[in-house]
Every structure is written in structure tokens, then in C-alpha cells.
């Protein structure tokens, strides 16, 4: 289908527990200009290619693809823009066993009324459930966090819902995190409550606060902001945050059954008598089911932090 020509437009690949990698890339000299690929068991194969038919949308073709996510069964979900005549639409697709399935497309009805208008990057767990944030237009909530499972599309959180710390949800982070129990973690913007921003976990018991701006941070100081999106695995939530009045002005934290703890922060010691200078321009963390946390830390680059 051509030659891989670049990754700058698609900087975030996906990795599963079996070592498979899904990524988006530009293409040159072939039949497509962009695609999503899966590298698994020593083989590289295309998952979706621009210019090909957009399954589930009659008369439409894939115009662009982005933001793949991957589970341990090598199922891939991704965002796509599809073109149908002069019309362009956003959609979320699932690739399974070489087949593309449209999960939801702009204009589809949303569970609480109105129609989907735009989507954040989707995520998928090992049960095949897919979660995403979305904008909704029409006489309904203006947006929310949604889960697609055996019961169809469900809204987990909606703009205007009352938050567990008071006030209402106004906005949600573009990206959400999903684990194999169906729980979702998301950063929320709040209005009319005691805090303007909080990381929230939604599971079968409902929504609960993980951390909020103004809360005391482990090690000292108070949370003043949160990173672009949290990570989630087996009920543990990891996130980055800025802290006012503490020993580290930016740090990564993990919340689990033992409580909330800092795992690494600016100024912490590194091997060789060095110290962490930065967690990057947009600090984010990844979390494994074992509890291991990975984060970028200048000057060492990517660090893997094993649980204690």
C-alpha cells in the first residue's frame, strides 16, 4: 500500500500485553495517503486505509484516520473522518479479525437525546467495551462520557450532571481511560462547586472523586491543575498534576485501595546524583495492570516506576 512516510501527525501509538503495537502513519507512493497499522507477532498489516470504503456508512470512504487504541485480542478502535459526496462526518470504528465495523458516527442519536457531533479518541478493554468522550448537539446534554458494550451505547457522565463533590460537570477531558471491569477515569471541569477541576472514576458504584483542585497533595502542597488525561488499570488511577506550595510543582500520582501517593515529581533524585528537571511539556503517565507507572522525566527520558 506504499511506504511509511511519517508519524509526526500521529505521535501516540498503542501497545498491548502481548507486545502488539497499533499506530497511524502517513504513506507515500501507494494507493493511500494515510493508514492505521498493527504490528503483531513479527508481521505488519494495515488495519484501515484512507480512500477505502467506510463500513456501515453507504457511499462513504475513509478520508483520515487517527488515535488507535488496542486490547490484548488485537482489536483496534480509532477515530476516522469519512467523506460521503460533499459531506464529511466523524466516526468511531472497530477493527476485529480484519473487518471494520462502524460503532458510532456523527449524527447518530445519543442516549440522553440529541445527536453526536464530535468524538474524543476512543479506548477499548479486553472485554471489547469501548469508551469515549463526545460532544452532543440538539435538545439534550451538550456532551458526556459514553460506553459501548453488550447493552449498546450508554452515557456514564453527562454535562449538567451533579458531581460527587458538588456542582455540575461542565466539560470532560478529550481522552478517557478504561479498564477491564468497565470502569472509566476522566478529568472533569466543574461549575458551581467547591472545586473547578477534578479527576473522577466511574464504576458500577457510580462516580467518585479521585482528586480535586484544592485537595492536599501527598508530600505537601495542594493540587492546582491536572494533566491532559488520567490512566487506569484494575481500579488504580494514575495522573499528573501541578501542585502549589509543595516540594514538587509538577508530579505523578497513583490512587488505589491504599490511598493516594506520589510516584515521581520534579526535583526528585535519579540515579547518578541527578534530579528530575521536568515531566515534559504536557505531562502524562501510563499504568500497567501490575501497578507499574511509566512517565517521561527529563533528563533521563522514559522512566518505568515499579510499585513498592
Fold and architecture overview:
The chain is mostly beta strands and 308 residues long. 0% of the residues lie in helices and 55% in strands. It has no helices and 29 strands. It has strands at residues 3-6, 14-15, 21-28, 34-40, 43-49, 61-70, 76-84, 87-96, 99-105, 115-119, 123-124, 130-137, 143-149, 152-158, 168-172, 177-178, 184-191, 197-203, 206-212, 222-226, 231-233, 236-244, 250-256, 259-265, 269-270, 274-275, 285-287, 293-297, 301-305. Strands 1, 2, 3, 4 and 5 form a five-stranded antiparallel sheet that branches. Strands 10, 11, 12, 13 and 14 form a five-stranded antiparallel sheet that branches. Strands 15, 16, 17, 18 and 19 form a five-stranded antiparallel sheet that branches. The model has no long low-confidence stretch (mean pLDDT 93).
From the spread of the alpha carbons, the general shape counts as globular
Q: Strand tally, please? A: 29
Coarse structural class: mainly beta
- What can be said about the biggest beta sheet? 5 strands, antiparallel
Span of the ends, CA to CA: 47 Å
- Helical segment tally? 0
Q: Segments where pLDDT lies below 50 for 5+ residues?
A: none
- How much of the sequence lies in strands comes to over 45%
| CA-based gyration radius | 20 Å
Question: Helicity range of the residues?
Answer: under 10%
Give the H and E element order: EEEEEEEEEEEEEEEEEEEEEEEEEEEEE
| Average pLDDT, all residues | 93
